[in-house]
Amino acid sequence: MLPTTNHGSRSSNPQRRLSVLSTYLRRIIKPKQMDFEYTFWLMLQLCISPKTAYRHTSYHKQTKNHWARDDPAYVVICCLLVGAAACAYCVAFSSSVWHSLFTVMSAVFVDFLAIGVAIATVGWFLANKCLRKKTLHSHAIEQHVEWMYAFDVHCNSYFPLFLLLYVLQYLLCPLLLWHSFFSAVLSNLLYMAALSYYHYLSFLGYSALPFLEHTEVFLWPVAAIILIVPFTILSGFNPTRFTLNIYFG
Question: What is the pLDDT of residues 155-182, one digit of tens each?
C-alpha cells in the first residue's frame, strides 16, 4: 500500500511539489517526453465517458503518489487547439493582422490559461478549506488538494467546452448570428450545455478525491445557469453575438 502523507513527511511536501513542477515545465520544451497518445485518449473519454477518465486519477495516485499530472501534453494540446480555433474566427471576422494576433494571444493566455488559473485557485482554496473530511483520530493521515490537480480539473473541463463554444459555435455561426428569436434560443442552449458540462466535469474531478466531501457544491453553478437561461431567452439575449462583439466589434 502506498503511503499518502504523514506528519514526518510534511516538511518534504514543498520539495516534492517543486520537483513535480520542475519536471512539468522541463517536459514542455521536450515533446518526446510527452504522452500525446494518452492525452488524446483522455480527451475522448472526457466527452463520452468522463467517469472512466477520472477513474484513472486513482491509478496515477497509486503509481506516482500525487494526484496531479506531471505531463504537460494536455495543456500544450489545448493551447494549440484554442489558438487554431481563434485563428479560424479571425479569418472569418477580423479585418486586421495585429488585431488577429491579439485575439489569438488573448484566447490562449487569458481565456484558457489566466482564467483557468483563477478558477483553479478558487476550487483549490474551497476544497482545502471547506470540503476536506474531518479526521476521526490523531493517527489519521491528512491529505490536501494539490493546486496542480485543481488546474488539471479546469483543463479537463475546458476541452468539451472548447468543442461546443469554439468548434460547434463556429460551424453554426451563420445560423446563430441571425437577428431572430430562434437564433437566440439556440445560442442560449449551446452556452447552457457547454457551461453546465464544464461544471459537471469539475464536480467529477473533485469528487474523485476520496478525502473530500460535499463536492456537490461544484454543481451549484449548473442550477444557477438553468434558472437564468429562460430569462435570457425571453429577453432576446444572444450569447454568440455578445461574445463575438467583445472580440471583433
Answer: 999 999 999 999 999 999 999 999 999 9
Residue 177, C-beta contacts closer than 8 angstroms, at least 6 positions apart: 183, 238, 240, 241, 244
Contact 190, 210 (CB under 8 A): no
CB 86 within 8 A of CB 170: no
Domain limits, the chain: 7-248
Per-residue model confidence as pLDDT tens digits over 69-87: 888 999 999 999 999 999 9
Is the distance from CB of 75 to CB of 117 less than 8 angstroms? no
pTM greater than the 0.70 cutoff = yes
Can you state the angle between helices 73-93 and 169-176, rounded to 10 degrees? 30
CA distance 223 to 115: 22
* 211, amino acid identity: F
